[in-house]
């Protein structure tokens, strides 16, 4: 990756807001220095740097440093960015960057003697990088840094970054909204190309092509095809096979925006059965119940209960599915979320909400066998969740 190709955010007000939240978290935990590494998951780095790739050395007081990586990072040091203290992690720029050695060397040259250091991603967190249960920091990178820190106390920095990133600014929410608009363009393009007898790949490619817009990253679509009542695979890539009469595709559409944005849309080929419409209507009811329950101060237990209750007295049960992209809380049917149920909902947080239903007679959720889920991003406001998308909540038959 070219370091010069990255476009740093130069909004100083947004920078100061983020850095203030991080420093508050550091102070509360007695942390003098926070180290954030980009190798396996750059989200925390991008949050602190305004979009630049590199290792960040972030003190609780004073200006941070960034050790830039990339094939022309030696040239990117002269570019304006949020972090004004800048070096290249390699002498001439490289896509093979020894971040551990570079950070250790920089700490030695700074004669840094922090009493307590936090490394982001050193372990997992219920609200940060929730699919990386053991954290995301690379062992050999951390080992080289620990050798330099010697007897310094080192702790997990995930709680600091989780709390800082959890509540979004209005500028961040606008970025989510823009990403959802691109994802919805992808959904429309899929529908226009989804025809019985045509390759599924045609519809998939149409969705990807519609999301290849300036300033966006690489889009992706999780494509889950199959016949009604049968288990369906989750394909993240161009799918095989044709669109057969009766084919159901549950699609998770992600536009590649830096803010982890996603929508869910079902695609049906042929006549919609009454049972399928009933399942879809309950999904929408569960979505709306969740949206209304997402008010500041409510517990997650109350939000989940509101979604589940829409199926009372029916032959269905709700699978409550909601998360913040890479972040939490993570509500998925194949994992426990008991530890967060009594936590309170906070204003300004953003989630993808996409509940689905399955027969009450089933002992467990059979992988997407009845999946007609429709989902959108919601931001928590004082009077409930605000939708960031504009699509109609309807089940469409394609021929």
What does this structure look like?
This protein has ten helices and 18 strands. The chain has helices at 12-28, 43-49, 73-76, 99-110, 139-149, 158-166, 170-193, 200-211, 274-293, 300-309; strands at 33-36, 54-59, 65-68, 85-88, 116-119, 153-156, 220-227, 235-236, 247-254, 263-269, 316-319, 322-324, 327-331, 350-353, 356-359, 376-381, 384-387, 397-398. The protein has a six-stranded mixed sheet, with helices on both faces. A five-stranded mixed sheet has the order 8-7-9-10-18. The protein has a five-stranded antiparallel sheet with strand order 13-12-14-16-17, with helices on both faces. Strand 5, helix 5 and strand 6 (153-156) form a beta-alpha-beta unit. Helix 4 (99-110) packs parallel to helix 5 (139-149) and helix 9 packs antiparallel against helix 10 (300-309). The radius of gyration is 23 Å and the shape is globular. The two termini are 42 Å apart.
Task: Kindly summarize this structure in a few lines.
With 399 residues, the protein is of the alpha+beta class. It is built from 10 helices and 18 strands.
Task: Describe the secondary-structure layout.
Elements: H1 12-28, E1 33-36, H2 43-49, E2 54-59, E3 65-68, H3 73-76, E4 85-88, H4 99-110, E5 116-119, H5 139-149, E6 153-156, H6 158-166, H7 170-193, H8 200-211, E7 220-227, E8 235-236, E9 247-254, E10 263-269, H9 274-293, H10 300-309, E11 316-319, E12 322-324, E13 327-331, E14 350-353, E15 356-359, E16 376-381, E17 384-387, E18 397-398
Parallel strand pairs: 1-5, 3-4, 5-6, 10-18
Antiparallel strand pairs: 1-2, 2-3, 7-8, 7-9, 9-10, 11-15, 12-13, 12-14, 14-16, 16-17
């Amino acid at each position: 990756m070219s370091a010069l190709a990255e476009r740093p955010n130069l909004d100083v007000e947004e920078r100061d807001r983020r850095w203030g939240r991080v420093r508050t978290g550091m102070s509360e935990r007695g942390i003098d220095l926070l180290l954030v590494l980009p190798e396996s998951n750059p989200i925390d780095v991008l949050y602190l740097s305004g979009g630049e790739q590199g290792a960040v050395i972030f003190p609780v007081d004073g200006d941070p440093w960034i050790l830039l990586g990339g094939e022309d990072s030696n040239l990117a040091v002269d570019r304006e960015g949020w972090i004004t203290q800048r070096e290249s992690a390699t002498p001439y720029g490289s896509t093979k960057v020894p971040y551990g050695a570079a950070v250790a060397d920089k700490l030695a040259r700074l004669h840094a003697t922090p009493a307590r250091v936090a490394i982001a991603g050193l372990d997992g967190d219920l609200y940060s990088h929730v699919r990386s249960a053991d954290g995301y920091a690379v062992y050999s990178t951390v080992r080289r840094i620990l050798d330099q820190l010697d007897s310094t106390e080192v702790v997990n920095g995930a709680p600091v970054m989780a709390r800082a990133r959890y509540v979004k600014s209005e500028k961040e929410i606008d970025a989510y909204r823009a990403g959802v608009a691109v994802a919805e363009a992808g959904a429309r393009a899929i529908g226009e190309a989804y025809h019985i007898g045509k390759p599924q790949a045609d519809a998939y490619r149409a969705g990807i092509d519609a999301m290849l817009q300036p300033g966006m990253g690489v889009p992706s679509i999780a494509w889950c095809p199959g016949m009604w009542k049968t288990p369906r695979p989750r394909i993240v890539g161009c799918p095989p096979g044709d669109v057969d009469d009766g084919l159901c595709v549950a699609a998770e559409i992600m536009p590649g925006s830096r803010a982890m944005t996603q929508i869910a849309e079902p695609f049906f080929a042929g006549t919609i059965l009454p049972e399928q419409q009933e399942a879809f209507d309950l999904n929408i009811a569960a979505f709306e119940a969740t949206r209304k329950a997402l008010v500041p101060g409510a517990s997650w237990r109350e939000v989940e209960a509101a979604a589940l209750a829409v199926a009372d007295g029916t032959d269905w049960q709700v699978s409550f599915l909601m998360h913040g992209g890479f972040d939490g809380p993570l509500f998925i049917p194949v994992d426990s979320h008991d530890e967060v149920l009594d936590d309170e909902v906070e204003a300004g947080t953003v989630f993808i909400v996409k509940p689905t239903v399955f027969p009450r007679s089933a002992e467990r959720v059979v992988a997407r066998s009845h999946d007609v889920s429709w989902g959108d991003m919601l931001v928590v406001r004082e009077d409930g969740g605000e939708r960031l998308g504009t699509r109609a909540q309807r089940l469409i038959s394609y021929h």
